[in-house]
Amino acid sequence: MKLIIATIKPFKLEEVREALTEIGVRGMMVTEIKGFGSQSGHTEIYRGAEYAVNFVPKIKLEIGVTDGLADQVVDTITSTAKTGKIGDGKIFVLDIAQAVRVRTGETDEDAL
């Protein structure tokens, strides 16, 4: 089992969700976050004053999948979230040692 953590641009969320649903992803956790990467934020002008925006709004997706689906999920997120501009995001894939569905007590792949 794998945990896929992806950060994407907020306006890409619905498109990514639809694409993941089409390949069989049954659930995900979504969090609104702020962060920066190689773009290191940017400057904006508000009421004539320039100020630095050090953290950029992003969306964090957390998706638990079987080993067999992990590569397809990564490929789907990559192709769907890509704009070709700086700040498109990152994807991390981690091993899951154990999963439990609280309602039914199902474990591991059955819990996903």
UniProtKB/TrEMBL annotation:
GO annotation, cellular component aspect: cytosol
Example GO molecular function: enzyme regulator activity
Nucleotide-binding is among the record's keywords: yes
Transcription regulation as UniProt keyword: yes
Residues with the O-UMP-tyrosine modification: 51
Any GO BP: regulation of nitrogen utilization
Lineage: superkingdom: Bacteria
Keyword annotations of the record: Nitrogen fixation, Nucleotide-binding, Phosphoprotein, Transcription, Transcription regulation
Subunit and interaction comment: Homotrimer.
Purpose: P-II indirectly controls the transcription of the glutamine synthetase gene (glnA). P-II prevents NR-II-catalyzed conversion of NR-I to NR-I-phosphate, the transcriptional activator of glnA. When P-II is uridylylated to P-II-UMP, these events are reversed. When the ratio of Gln to 2-ketoglutarate decreases, P-II is uridylylated to P-II-UMP, which causes the deadenylation of glutamine synthetase, so activating the enzyme.
Family membership noted in the UniProt record: Belongs to the P(II) protein family.
The name this protein goes by in its record: Nitrogen regulatory protein P-II
Species in which this protein is naturally found: Pseudooceanicola albus
